[in-house]
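Appendix B. One record, verbatim.
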Amino acid sequence: MYKYVKRFLDIIVSLIVLIVFAIPMLIIAIAIKLEDGGPALFKQARTGKDGRNFKLIKFRSMKINNDVRDFKKEDEFTKIGKFIRSTSLDEIPQIFNIIKGDMSFIGPRPWIPEYYENMNNKQRERVSVLPGITGLAQVNGRNSISINQKINYDLEYVNNFSLFQDIKILGKTIFTVLKKEHAYINKMGIKEEIDELKKQNKKMESEI
């Protein structure tokens, strides 16, 4: 029953956020465009509920020539990009993903498909609910914790899916964003997490 209530609340709150942040969003978009002439938005394939992929929308924080798949080169941020990434303002356009039904405000973070492809069946239970802008892992260490800790927090969220839990996460998120700690994981960090999942699954397969 709560999933229907949550969906209703997601839509209502998204519309309120859209109205309140309309001008700040416009200012950010113009600032991004003026800096290097590139697009204001960045879209990337992420794994959503039940393993279905969707296009996540964020404000672009990287330079135009930055290749997110090139793990040999460090990410290159624009000047405005560094600011919106550290303050999590780059996440605001995800309200369009929420309105569309791809995401919720609270839930496991949606990761690139390579994560899901290298998870075992138990780990994949983290996508049995809609992914969120913030979640239990985000308020318990964010990117300072290991990939296994992140997944365990996500599974804990799924197993204790409730309004009470969402309220607690929402309250903790405010302090997490204000601290500006561990808001970003670089490309090498992503590669290392995916490699760790691959290694774990190979070990499991060899033990069967």
